[in-house]
């Protein structure tokens, strides 16, 4: 009789999980025959695809980030809204791992790190097919499914799967976007200022402007993570391409005067944010001004201005040592819509219905849409997370009686963007990456992370004077430094180390920022104080709570223009690594 092999609890758990997934895959497959809501591709394009674990209905689509909590009645599918991505083959993953272990890394010159919108061939995105009130709900849904399937077939006929970046394959999530676009008067396209061209789909802009005849405001969000000069440079870049576009700079977490100035900050644990922190968001006034310009008096926005003034006063009261009331438990009047397909919105709705301005926050996952809603409200009304794809269904909230905010789930638009960049931009959940090493290599070729993290080469003791680094070495050295060990053999846990490095990058603690094409050349350009609020010097209030500091920063920026200077690297510790001689 063969000897029984030991079977750990972890393995058992995994086995049960796989069985469950297999069953679910079967159910999905059955459902798909009647109603392909999952948005998967029905026939595998490549017969050689990895099908070993039998996880999903279509072996080409990887489903990640399951629904966090159960909602709805008996027929509710908790995984209906999870992210669906194209799945890679095992051979492909093994090949990339080998590259990470062998390829010697070389720093990319900053001149090669310039990005334009053209650099990214953003493809068209799935749109809602035309419908009218004579059609039944089932007919509308069926038409949407057919159109979405055709869209996927078209795109996979045009491009090889490896050419395409990860993008959303779940029709339900696209339906949420369609609904939000229909119900909103102005769309706020939220982008992370570190990767704005990555988060700006020109196809979406032109659809909103030309087809829907609505306005769009571009929000350069998370400005606390980039040097002010870079924020200004991006603002000017977008203005030069889209002169009519309103652009607003925003941060939900302005940098405090003392905060994160220490280069060792990268090693520190993330601090838990106080509930009152939301009131410190910077950019509300700029957003209000942009809305006023577009609305042109058709909606009364005075309440919004009053709210901003009130929040700024409360914030400065807290600065002066006032009480920090915890509003977390207050009743929150958010409206959830967990089935966008149930809501057949008007295809061409009237603007500013009943004197209410609806602002729809749309964009890629993890760019800070929910945080922006919280920042505008001044307290937590929607849940946020550093895991992309956290918001699953759109939610609305009345900021004032005449301004309604709508938070849409994040969507990855199809593009030909390099997948490493997508991961670093926080678009793809780090915990779900099957092969993180090459992305660490991509990062290390743009930021000298070995130096920043003071890593010791794993082969240093083997006598090599100046050992070359490959991505695997970096992960191994980081595992050694952090003490990440595998459970069984107590070897360095390289996979965990790679994930940890990628998290540091997505959180902005290892800060990589894209640069616009003219960045570094426009020395003479004057920076207006209104261009960007300097988060490092002005930590509280969004309405001029500290105007003298604001003016001082404006002067400082004017002197610096758009040139990355030593001054900037001092005020912004991450900049040194981002804009230095790389
Ligand atoms: N530094 C910094 N981090 C931010 C800012 N806004 C959001 N974040 C962080 O970015 C992560 C994502 O924020 P969310 O507000 O959940 O992003 P989202 O766009 O709603 O994400 P999805 O639910 O995936 O669509 C969280 O870890 C936030 O703490 C900001 O202004 N500055």
UniProtKB/TrEMBL annotation:
<keyword id="KW-0547">Nucleotide-binding</keyword>
<dbReference type="InterPro" id="IPR043358">
    <property type="entry name" value="GNL1-like"/>
</dbReference>
<dbReference type="GO" id="GO:0003924">
    <property type="term" value="F:GTPase activity"/>
</dbReference>
<dbReference type="Pfam" id="PF01926">
    <property type="entry name" value="MMR_HSR1"/>
</dbReference>
<feature type="compositionally biased region" description="Basic residues">
    <location>
        <begin position="1"/>
        <end position="15"/>
    </location>
</feature>
<protein>
    <recommendedName>
        <fullName>Guanine nucleotide-binding protein-like 1</fullName>
    </recommendedName>
</protein>
<dbReference type="InterPro" id="IPR006073">
    <property type="entry name" value="GTP-bd"/>
</dbReference>
<feature type="coiled-coil region">
    <location>
        <begin position="83"/>
        <end position="110"/>
    </location>
</feature>
<comment type="function">
    <text>Possible regulatory or functional link with the histocompatibility cluster.</text>
</comment>
<keyword id="KW-0342">GTP-binding</keyword>
<feature type="compositionally biased region" description="Basic residues">
    <location>
        <begin position="571"/>
        <end position="582"/>
    </location>
</feature>
<feature type="region of interest" description="Disordered">
    <location>
        <begin position="533"/>
        <end position="582"/>
    </location>
</feature>
<keyword id="KW-0175">Coiled coil</keyword>
<feature type="domain" description="G">
    <location>
        <begin position="359"/>
        <end position="413"/>
    </location>
</feature>
<dbReference type="InterPro" id="IPR027417">
    <property type="entry name" value="P-loop_NTPase"/>
</dbReference>
<feature type="compositionally biased region" description="Polar residues">
    <location>
        <begin position="539"/>
        <end position="551"/>
    </location>
</feature>
<feature type="region of interest" description="Disordered">
    <location>
        <begin position="1"/>
        <end position="74"/>
    </location>
</feature>
<dbReference type="GO" id="GO:0005525">
    <property type="term" value="F:GTP binding"/>
</dbReference>
